[in-house]
Design a protein that fits this description.
By secondary structure, the chain is an all-alpha fold. It has a domain at about 5-140. The protein contains eleven helices and two strands, in the order H-H-H-H-H-H-E-H-E-H-H-H-H. The protein has a two-stranded antiparallel sheet with strand order 1-2. Helix 9 crosses helix 11 (about 260-270).
Length: about 280
């Protein structure tokens, strides 16, 4: 039984996710075969994200993404956390079961409604910020399970959507309101989703199809440099579906369009779908 207060305390002291996951007092037990640190980190942020989605989202929220490294109390169930007690865990389990099914149910169902407004508008933000198709893990899928994530994406109907954010609530300003205008410069490249929080399935399929592309030595060097220099220090804040979609997108941009590492990073940063505000950049 995970003691979330202990997790909060250790993270506030600067302890890495791997060490927190192995702390006996924290009481975290990762799924078999999962990376313990990543699994704990994902569950922690999903607790916060799903809780925030249960209420209305307002533009320009005050939470900074740096706070998600453990310096602030989680929004999810903040008012009812009682020393990491069984009450907290039970309520969390019930909440997740009754909502999207993430972790305890099947894979998230894709959206069929693109939303009420144009990308980047407040109306679209208000709609997308309440969606939860963009999930990190669910029953039978652990972070880093490329085959399962790719199979899930390829099994979606082409005209459905992966909507919402994965690890933290969406933020209108500065993230959403600036990401969309930034992506308009790439409208001629169909592989680049115009809205990272509303990705149509056929584009996600096209991106992950390139994840396994072979690169020349010089292209691999560009790819490696880009991967280490994104705002999230990788293709996503965790190895979920978006990680492999962004990885494939990066390879396609390098091979087909001759992009430099800096150009790739610009696109991937604009495609950040972890939530906001600011880069996740988690160790």
């Amino acid at each position: 039984m995970t003691d979330w207060e202990r997790v909060e305390q250790l993270r506030a002291d600067g302890v890495s996710w791997d060490k927190v996951a192995s702390d006996r007092k924290a009481g975290f037990h990762p799924p078999p075969g999962a990376d313990a640190g990543r699994a704990l980190r994902t569950l922690y942020f999903q607790r916060r994200s799903r809780s925030s989605r249960s209420g209305p989202q307002t533009p320009g929220g005050s939470e900074r993404r740096g706070d998600r490294a453990g310096r602030g109390g989680p929004k999810r169930l903040r008012s009812i956390i009682i020393g990491g007690s069984a009450v907290t865990v039970l309520i969390l389990v019930i909440y997740l079961i009754l909502t999207s099914g993430v972790l305890f149910g099947g894979p998230p169902k894709p959206g069929t409604n693109p939303g009420p407004g144009a990308a980047g508008t407040l109306a679209e933000f208000n709609y997308l910020s309440q969606q939860s198709t963009d999930a990190c893990v669910w029953t039978g899928v652990n972070l880093g399970d490329e085959t399962s994530y790719v199979n899930w994406i390829n099994g979606l109907a082409d005209n459905t959507y992966i909507q919402g954010s994965c690890c933290s609530p969406m933020d209108f300003t500065p993230d959403y309101s600036s990401q969309i205008p930034g992506l308009t410069s790439y409208a001629s490249i169909s592989l680049i989703p115009p809205d990272p929080y509303n990705v149509v399935a056929h584009t996600a399929k096209a991106d992950v199809a390139h994840a396994g592309d072979a690169l020349t030595s010089s292209q691999q060097s560009v790819f490696n440099t880009a991967a280490s220099n994104t705002n999230d220090n990788g293709w996503c804040c965790c190895q979920c579906w978006a990680y492999y979609a962004h990885e494939g997108l990066a390879k396609a941009l390098i091979v087909q369009y001759g992009y430099t590492a800096q150009q790739v990073d610009t696109v991937i940063n604009l495609e950040d779908c972890c939530g906001g505000p600011g880069p996740m950049n988690m160790p």
